[in-house]
Amino acid sequence: MRNYASKLTTLARNSSYPLRVRKFILSNIKRFRCDVQMAALHWRKEINTTKTQKIKGLRSDLINAPYHRLGYHSNCRSYFCDRSKQIQLNLVPEAETSGMMREIVNIASRLVTNAESLLENKTSNICEQFNSVINKHIAGKRLNFSSRGNYNTRVEAAIVSFNSKQYLRQIHKTLTKCSPGKMHIYV
User: Fold this and answer.
1) Would you tell me how many other CB atoms lie within 10 Å of the CB of residue 40?
2) Which top-rank group of organisms is this from (predicted)?
3) Residue 72's Cα: distance from chain center in Å?
4) Which of 73, 95, 119 marks a domain boundary?
5) pLDDT tens digits, residue range 163-178?
């Protein structure tokens, strides 16, 4: 999502495209982003459809989102847009003649490719995924483990968990022959 907004901003600062369209994009960057978020939220909440149908629906909404924001509403679905309130200028023809619309569609195509992860509200950044696993194992950012040498052990545990896609409970159970949830009293 961040990448989507930053690429649109970079595109809108390119002076080879029409000024009116560029100004509109720059002043509506958050709305472009919000359109994507609202479409994903709609399909996440949809109950009576299969995951495949949700992904297909989200992809069509993501393809249509830039057109919707630039004023072309003929492909908008009723939950996505209320056409009766939309009395605005259609900037799509101007963006298409300049080649800007092709660039916008290319930028949006990355979102279309990652529609499944948007639907599940997951990140596609592997570093963010790994850091979230580390934070889970070191109790977040609240505690300082670096002075005790415990941090390295916890990061190693997070690496094992991340790579194996298994809970550390199974590793603990294999090594100690008891479940980590049970406490043993040693006499």
Assistant:
1) 22
2) Eukaryota
3) 25
4) 119
5) 776 666 676 777 788 7
